[in-house]
Amino acid sequence: MGRRRDLRSIRNNTFIVSNSPTSNSSRRTSSHPVLKIYVVMPAFNASRTIAKVFARIPRDVIIKISGFIVIDDGSNDNTMREIKRLKRRYHIMLARHKKNQGYGSAQKSGFRLALKHNADVVVLLHSDGQYPPEMLGKMVEPLLSGKADIVGGSRWSYGRMLGRGMPVHKYIGNFLLTGIMNLAFRKRLSCYHSGYKAYSKKALESIDFSRFSDKFDFDSEMLVASFKHNLKIIEIPIPTHYGDEVSYLKPMEYGLGILRIIGKYIRGYY
Q1: What is the pLDDT of residue 165?
Q2: How many CB atoms lie within 10 A of CB 29?
């Protein structure tokens, strides 16, 4: 019943969906695996970066992807124009929030669409280039082989974060929050705060993500809920990259959100 309500929200003008033409060169061919892989890309004012992200995805990975679901989360720049241009080359489904609803809300829209199209594997990839699209193949491997239900890209496992541009306050905040969360959940993850994630169909169908935050702490809620469902998590080392992209994350608000998640976990919310 809950899933039906989710799909109805797609039709009730929450956002507008547009499919790419059938002539896209990146559509699947006979060389593709049977499993359907979709890439969900939230985009807010990403007109300067999104084309570069697509260009960095290895060709041998692109031909294995069933489709890209790009969610324009109420951008007020030329993001829509850039996505429409990219649709000529890639199999893109475009979903548009009329108003900015938040990073978590964009993911929810993308995940619902992916499940509606019978996705077996769904990868979350940022459109600002902060996470390496070159690693897409590595991110999906544990899911395709059945070794994991969720894969997280971990900058901590890779190392050298400060040398690659991570601001000191984010480094310290990540370290402290990850330590607190590992103590609270009795886990040993190296990173709870990565926005590079890959999910199996089992994971997305098991977790009722519609109840979670519309903001940046959505990723952490997905991980915490996975603990309750005994889903297997694997972390993949990924390099850190901080360029001239604009961050909309508010550190203090995010930190308080994480503490609220811990409180909800203790109360049995997940």
Answers
A1: 66
A2: 8
**Using CA of residue 194, residue 195, residue 201, residue 205, what is the dihedral sign?**
positive
Return d(Cα 110, Cα 93) in angstroms, integer. 10
> Residue 217: its pLDDT value, please?
93
pLDDT at 166: 75
| CATH architecture of the domain with range 2-266 | Alpha-Beta Complex (3.90)
Tell me the C-alpha to C-alpha distance, in Å, between residue 156 and each of 12, 172, 192, 193, 233.
Answer: 41, 12, 10, 10, 16
Residue 134, token pair as written in the block:
């070159």
Distance, in Å, from the CA atom of 39 to the CA atom of 201, rounded to the nearest integer, reads: 13
Q: Where are the domains of the chain?
A: 2-266
Q: Are 54 and 82 in contact (CB under 8 A)?
A: no
Q: Which residues contact 219 (CB under 8 A, 6 or more apart)?
A: 104, 124, 192, 193, 194, 195, 197
Cα distance between residue 105 and residue 112, in whole Å:
11
Residue with token string 């894969």: 151
Distance (Å, whole) CA 241 – CA 261: 27
pLDDT (0 to 100) of residue 27: 46
Question: What is the torsional sign of CA 38, 42, 45, 48?
Answer: negative
Tell the burial category of 217 from Cβ atoms under 10 Å away from its Cβ (0-12, 13-18, 19+). buried
Q: Which two tokens stand for residue 24?
A: 């896209």
What's the CA gap between 192 and 175, in Å, rounded? Answer: 10
Which of the residues in the chain have pLDDT under 70?
1-33, 159-165, 241-248
Question: How many residues comprise the chain?
Answer: 270
